[in-house]
Amino acid sequence: MSNDPVGRRPRSAGLHSALRAAALAAVALGVMLLAAAAFVLSYEGIHHIALRAGVSPELAKLYPIIFDVMLVVAGAAALALRGAGLWARCYAWG
User: How many other C-beta atoms can be found within 10 angstroms of the C-beta atom of residue 64?
Assistant: First the structure.
């Protein structure tokens, strides 16, 4: 048995939690920066494709946003379901 009071976690558990939170924050920041870079680099091309497809100029401005948001959501879902069953993981990746 441990001499720690009931309900208190060892100090190393708190450090582990802090490192895990810092890693999660770093990954979230990285995903946001990557999404922003992808948006900036792909906006003109996706906008041009939407215009060539006959989409109105007002709606064509939204196509790059929709496309990039969909990619971020799909990537986040695939990572969030890494502990799920095979069917759920394949569905998210698909």
Answer: 21
Going from the C-alpha of 35 to that of each of 70, 75, 82, the distances in angstroms are 11, 11, 21
Question: For the segment 21-56, what is each residue's pLDDT rounded down to a tens digit?
Answer: 888 889 888 878 887 888 899 899 999 999 999 999
| Separation CA 31–CA 55 (nearest Å) | 29
Lowest-confidence region among 11-15, 53-57, 87-91: 11-15
Burial of 50 by CB count in 10 Å (0-12 exposed, 13-18 middle, 19+ buried)?
Answer: buried
Radius of gyration over every alpha carbon of the chain, rounded to an integer in angstroms: 21
Q: Judge contact between 89 and 79, C-beta under 8 A.
A: no
HSE, CB side, 13 Å, CA atoms: give it for residue 26.
Answer: 6
CA angle 62, 81, 83 (to 5 degrees): 165
Residue type, 33: L
